[in-house]
Amino acid sequence: MPLDLVTIPCRTDNYAYLIHDAATGATAVVDVPDAAPIMAELAARGWSLSDILITHHHDDHIAGVGALQAATGARVCGGLSDAHRLPPLDLALTEASTVSIGSELARVIAVPGHTIGHIAYHFPASGFVFTGDSLMAAGCGRLFEGTPEMMWASLSKLAALPPETLVCSGHEYTASNIRFALSLEPANSALMLRSTEVAMAREAGLPTVPSTLSEELATNPFLRASVPQIKAALGMADASDVACFAELRRRKDRF
Ligand code: ZN
Ligand code: FE
Question: Could you tell me the residue range of the domain that residue 109 belongs to?
Fold first, then answer.
């Protein structure tokens, strides 16, 4: 049985996620922008928190960890290389580390770029990947610490997961990401369809996450730096994939 997945809006545009194993009662949260909305969701569902999984050290992903840990006694898990700038960790993780949540095992994928120590959590049995500010819905995180080479390699690892994987990312930036994508590929029919779906979801006050990896592959320009249509749109038909990715990121920073 796949884990239950609950998307929790936090702050102005952050998301946290609850995952729950009905068989064992284990419940984990991925990122804690704020403790209060997560406590409220746990109470409403009658779940008790066993684990806190952190993707990266930015305040909008960890600000509520201390309060949530104090209230629940949950185990805190995060990247070893960022241990010095994360809340105290009970379990420090590196690439290919595994974390068990109830009866399911998550594998850690190192995804440096937005920050150097950023990690993602892949749950192969349920088909979830928690990507924080690395791969985002129709976009990717800014390169605050890493190089384009690093982020392109990170996104390429995520792109190789099964296409039906649900991509659970950290922010509601999808509408503006899609405006940027459409400026490059105005005739991409999958992108036009997604633009309509995202606009309808936002009008209804609904999150646009999670998305599927297959729709990201079809519409997210940052996963499409190797595709001839994107290279042509950049005027970089003969450039390397990573050079095209770097140019996409530069243009999005100014968009
Ligand atoms: Zn961040
Ligand atoms: Fe963030």
Answer: 4-254
Give the span between the Cα atoms of 73 and 143, in whole angstroms: 34
Q: Could you give the number of structural domains in the chain?
A: 1
Residue for token pair 């600000």 = 63
The structure tokens 């993780």 sit at: 93
Residue (of 19, 8, 253) closest to 128 by Cα position: 19
Per-residue pLDDT tens digits for 158-200: 999 999 999 999 999 999 999 999 999 999 999 999 999 999 9
Q: What are the contacts of 183-189 at 24+ separation with CB within 8 A?
A: 183/255, 184/221, 184/230, 184/233, 184/234, 184/248, 185/221, 185/224, 185/229, 185/230, 185/233, 188/218, 188/219, 188/229
Distance from the CA of 90 to the center of ligand 1, in angstroms? 22
Q: CA Rg, the chain, in Å?
A: 18
The domain that contains 190 carries what CATH number? 3.60.15.10
CA of 58 to the centre of ligand 1 (A): 5
Angle between helices 174-184 and 241-254 (to 10 degrees): 120
- Render pLDDT for 56-88 as a digit per residue (tens, 0 to 9): 999 999 999 999 999 999 999 999 999 999 999
* Neighbouring residues of the ion ligand 1, judged by CB less than 5 Å: 58, 133
The span from the CA of 37 to the CA of 245, in Å, is: 36
CA of 171 to the centre of ligand 2 (A): 7
